[in-house]
Write a structure and sequence with these properties.
Distance between the termini: 50 Å
Radius of gyration: 17 Å
Largest sheet: 4 strands, mixed
Helix content: 10-25%
Number of helices: 2
Number of strands: 6
Strand content: 25-35%
Structural class: alpha/beta
């Protein structure tokens, strides 16, 4: 079983440097990158990174939080190219902007969609999301 060494909490300005240091120290595998919403607490948007040391099978979690007023953090795609899609998903669902990302755009929702559906203050229910495949047929079967 993998040993969990620690949960490291850093500010958004220090996150990239800390992650680069941990990668140099042997935590070379980015196992997970995901967003969270700590509503109603501020700063309310969290970004969590789960790193794995392949040699020792040790894990470490790096956590940071950004405000909804300025939800910016440096991209880690330069350290782990596989962070591309998880950062896009976090941007799409929570509105966290990953500065330096090579192609930061929506990945799950339509490009013109307004809002961030995984934020806790996002209205539940509401109107259906129209994708190109169901745009013309929506409503005919209802």
């Amino acid at each position: 079983m993998a040993e969990r060494l620690a949960d490291v909490e850093v500010g958004p300005a220090e996150a990239h440097a800390k992650l680069a240091q941990l990668k140099a120290d042997g935590f070379s595998f980015l196992a997970s990158l995901h967003g969270l919403d700590y509503y109603p607490h501020e700063p309310r948007l969290g970004v969590h990174y789960e790193l794995l040391n392949m040699a020792t099978v040790a894990r470490v979690a790096v956590k940071t939080r950004v405000s909804t007023d300025d939800p910016r953090i440096a991209s880690v795609t330069d350290l782990w190219p596989g962070a591309d899609f998880p950062e896009r998903e976090c941007y799409d669902m929570f509105g966290v902007v990953f500065e330096g990302h090579p192609d930061l755009r929506r990945i799950l929702m339509p490009e013109d969609y307004e809002g961030f559906p995984q934020r806790r203050d996002f209205p539940v229910g509401g109107e259906p999301v129209l994708f190109t495949f169901n745009e013309k047929s929506y409503g005919k079967n209802r």
